[in-house]
Design brief:
Blueprint: E1 2-4, H1 7-19, E2 24-29, H2 35-47, E3 50-55, H3 75-84, E4 89-91, H4 95-98, H5 117-120, H6 124-139, E5 143-147, H7 151-163, E6 169-173, H8 193-214, H9 220-232, E7 237-246, E8 259-268, E9 271-280
This protein binds pantoate.
Length: about 290
């Protein structure tokens, strides 16, 4: 496995792989790799011949009061996991290389970033779409894999790729959960045992929405309130939002449609967590991983 820090090295390795007829896959990450990331790597490896994992804690997607400086950076562990997973190349750029002095070009969507997470984190998605565009320009993958866990993020990235005609297939992989339902997140390490127990209320509120909708309840306003109440009834949990929205526009729905997405965000202790569940009204099965 090659571990490189410069654009030139990435381009050279990718060009060689492509010259050998290989199909290039990319998994952009901020490191602190867990089983959720590794499921993206696995999926990417099945679809492509040469897998590039990028590890870069991107400062422009953190707000002024967010956890940039304490964000976990266990690089050696991450590299070991990539090696074990058969990754071909890990790209770990430094901040000045990604954002040189005088940097002033951002990629920004008009409407999608303003909803949900964007209300709480106004500059977050501008940072995400800018760095993902840069990584796409550097790696030039045929396929890139993202997790459904960050539902709004993958929606924006798919929209950006479509709108800007980027020749990249975006694959969205199911959320990986602990046995008790907690969605894997690099931020889970901040949770105390007690907070972790309370954090289960995010997934419980999504299941509540799914169960009530599948049972024929059409009162989405009432369901949203019940989701917020359920989360708030747990110690350490301050709910931010609970919504049931259109799967593409993320606009809040007035009444159920065949396929919709329930999304929640809450602060648990000091840690902000998000989760979501796609609800397919005609599927009898209770979705777990999606
Ligand atoms: O999902 C993440 O880890 C990040 O937002 C991403 C896509 C790697 C961009 O920094």
């Amino acid at each position: 496995m090659q571990v490189v820090e410069t654009v030139k090295e990435v381009r050279k390795a990718v060009a060689e792989a492509r010259a050998g007829g290989e199909w290039i896959g990319c998994v952009p990450t901020m490191g602190a790799l867990h089983a959720g990331h590794m499921s993206l790597v696995e999926d990417c490896s099945e679809r492509t011949d040469f897998v590039v994992v990028t590890i870069f804690v991107n400062p422009t997607q953190f707000g002024p009061n967010e956890d940039l400086s304490k964000y976990p950076r266990p690089l050696e562990d991450d590299l070991e996991k990539c090696r074990e997973a058969g990754v071909d190349l890990v790209y770990t750029p430094e901040v000045p290389a990604m954002y040189p002095e005088g940097f002033e070009t951002y990629v920004k969507l008009e409407h999608l970033p303003k909803r949900l997470e964007g209300e709480h984190r106004p500059t977050h998605f501008r940072g995400v779409t800018t760095i993902v565009t840069k990584l796409f320009n550097i790696v030039q993958p045929d396929v890139a894999c993202f997790g459904q866990k960050d539902y709004q993020q993958q929606t924006l990235i798919r929209r950006m790729v479509r709108d800007l005609d980027m020749p990249i297939e975006i694959v969205v992989c199911p959320t990986v959960r602990e046995a008790d339902g907690l969605a894997l997140s690099s931020r889970n390490i901040y949770l105390s045992d007690d907070e972790r127990r309370s954090a289960l209320s995010l997934y419980a509120s999504l299941q509540l929405a799914q169960d009530r909708i599948k049972a024929g309840d059409t009162d989405l306003t009432g369901i949203r309130q019940a989701m917020l109440d359920l989360m708030a009834s747990h110690s350490h949990v301050t709910p931010d939002y609970a919504t049931i929205a259109d799967v593409d526009s993320l606009e809040s729905l007035d009444s159920p449609v065949p396929r919709m997405v329930a999304l929640v965000a809450a602060t648990v202790g000091q840690t902000r967590l998000i989760d979501n569940l796609v609800i397919d009204i005609h599927s009898r099965r209770r979705t777990h991983g999606a």
